[in-house]
Design a protein that fits this description.
It is a multi-pass membrane protein. It is found in: Membrane. Keywords: Membrane, Transferase, Transmembrane, Transmembrane helix. One of its GO terms (biological process) is colanic acid biosynthetic process. This protein is an alpha/beta fold. The chain has 3 domains: about 1-140, no CATH class; about 145-250, 3-Layer(aba) Sandwich (Rossmann fold); about 275-460, no CATH class. It has helices spanning about 10-35, 50-65, 85-105, 110-140, 155-165, 200-205, 225-235, 240-250, 260-265, 275-310, 355-365, 370-375, 390-400, 415-420, 425-445, 445-460, and strands spanning about 1-5, 5-10, 145-150, 170-175, 190, 210-215, 240, 315-320, 325-330, 380-385, 410-415. The strands form 4 sheets. Strands 5-4-3-6-7 form a 5-stranded parallel β-sheet, with helices on both faces. A two-stranded antiparallel sheet has the order 1-2. Strands 8-9 form a two-stranded antiparallel ribbon. Helix 10 packs antiparallel against helix 11 (about 355-365). It is globular.
Length: about 475
């Protein structure tokens, strides 16, 4: 994994994206070369911005492919992956984006003749690149050999996670090393024994293990091999603890066995002036653009809500914001007029309180658009944890460790948990969403905010997420 602005990025996905970006740039020049075989047209003034046009084309297509989920890989499906069926829709979406770019910056326009050729060449290039990529994965080049220290329940959970990590890594688990004072739950055939006079480092080198994951729940006592792990690290073998492994592979921070010291002494949790300034600027710019683009949609939505039951267009509800401060969130009304009377209830899939118009605007997130005003007022950010009602905050804070950590930053209109997890309707779902929220609170950055916006586009298009 690479770390870009504290966020974990798969080396495999990053490499594929980089290769496809180069293919798109190269296809642009190849299309122009085919269109003007003698090359004389490249000398005229209108091609002064040709490189910027190529970059604009590549960025638009990469954005569209990301928004349609083409970089969420599944090696087991390989060439049968349905994302290949999204290649043409991605190019159609990219064409729409380029149309807007050319309208705003006419100098970047390069002609319909070149555009058709560029699309054909780049689509062929990307398709061939994916064939080579997945065929390469079948022969194990992308696999990483991993060794676990520990043979208890935590080690088994980490092993299951590595074994099922289909999308971004392919792991070859070489085995588990037992430690004293831990109840074994791993099968004896998977537990490795050190040879006579052999160290942990020598075992790892013999088995060609590139990474050691320390999955030991209880590290107290004299049996924990801290010196041997240090020796492994000093000789170039990556050593990772279970909490970091879980964070890296799931983009969550596990709460059921999390030690406060890991949060205190670990990296992240950037609350500097520079980060806060950049986040506020990002909030204002994105909210302003979204308001301009969606204003007609908001007018139609308001009319549809009024026509359905002649009730109020909006509803305000108290939510908990940064520093546990309450505020009133503004949304389009998606439930019946009296749906919120009485004891607060969890939202549910196919909630009977939701109106027909409300069901649609929830699926495509239109009901969230009025929260733009909360962003302008500074009560919310564009990206952040979902704000919850005080009644549930009090309940969840007592039942779930570290729940209030999510209130160290402003809540958001969209967020990491909302785009990564499905509908939440109980405590178990709330724990899963909290683990995504904690990841965002710890690793939030401008880069991660942009990724969440791209994922939000995918959620709106396909109706997934929360």
């Amino acid at each position: 994994m690479l770390r870009i602005s504290n966020h974990y990025v798969s080396k495999v996905v990053f490499s594929l994206l980089f290769i496809e970006f180069l293919i798109l740039i190269g296809s642009f020049y190849a299309g122009a070369a085919v269109r003007f075989m003698d090359g004389t047209e490249f000398l005229v003034p209108k091609f002064d911005h040709f490189f910027m046009s190529a970059v604009s084309f590549a960025v638009a297509i990469i954005f569209s492919m990301s928004a349609l989920g083409m970089y969420q890989l599944d090696f087991d499906e390989g060439l049968r992956n349905p994302f290949f069926m999204k290649l043409m829709p991605s190019f159609a979406m990219g064409f729409c984006i380029l149309t807007l770019v050319f309208y705003l910056a006419p100098d970047l326009y390069f002609g319909r003749g070149i555009l058709v050729l560029v699309f054909l060449i780049s689509a062929t290039g990307i398709f061939l690149a994916r064939i080579v990529f997945f065929k390469t994965s079948e022969i194990g080049i992308l696999e990483s050999r991993i060794l676990f220290v520990g043979d208890g329940a935590l080690a088994r959970e980490c092993g299951d996670l590595a074994r099922n990590a289909k999308g971004y890594h392919k792991y070859d688990i070489v085995g588990y090393v037992s430690v004293p004072n831990e109840q074994r739950v791993i099968g004896a055939d998977q537990v490795l024994e050190l040879r006579e006079h052999e160290s942990l480092r020598q075992m790892a080198e013999r088995l060609d293990a590139r990474e050691i994951v320390v999955a030991v729940a209880n590290r107290r006592g004299g049996g924990f091999p801290i010196k041997e792990l240090l020796d492994c690290k000093l000789h170039g073998i990556q050593v990772t603890d279970a909490a970091t492994f879980f964070e890296r592979e799931t983009y969550q921070i596990r709460v059921d066995s999390l030690q406060p010291s890991w949060l205190v002494f670990g990296g992240g949790f950037d609350q500097s002036f520079g980060r806060m300034f950049m986040k506020r600027a990002f909030d204002i710019v994105c909210s302003s653009l979204l308001l301009i683009l969606t204003f007609p949609v908001m007018l139609v939505t308001a009319l549809a809500i009024w026509l359905e039951d002649r009730g109020p267009l909006f509803y305000q509800q108290e939510r908990v914001g940064r520093g546990d401060e309450p505020f009133k969130v503004l949304k389009f009304r998606s439930m019946g007029v009296n749906a919120e009377k009485g004891k607060p209830q969890w939202a549910q899939v196919n909630d009977p309180r939701v109106t027909r118009v409300g069901n649609f605007i929830r699926k495509v997130r239109i009901d969230e658009l009025p929260q733009i005003l909360n962003v302008f007022k500074g009560e919310m950010s564009f990206v952040g944890p979902r704000p919850e009602r005080p009644y549930f905050v009090e309940q969840l804070s007592e039942e779930i460790p570290f729940y209030k950590v999510r209130h160290s930053i402003k809540p958001g209109v969209t967020g990491w948990a909302q785009v990564r997890y499905g509908y939440g309707a109980n405590i178990e779902d709330t724990v899963q969403k909290l683990q995504y929220d904690l990841y965002y609170v710890k690793n939030n950055s401008l880069f991660l905010d942009v990724l969440i916006l791209i994922d939000t586009v995918k959620v709106v298009l396909f109706g997934s997420g929360r």
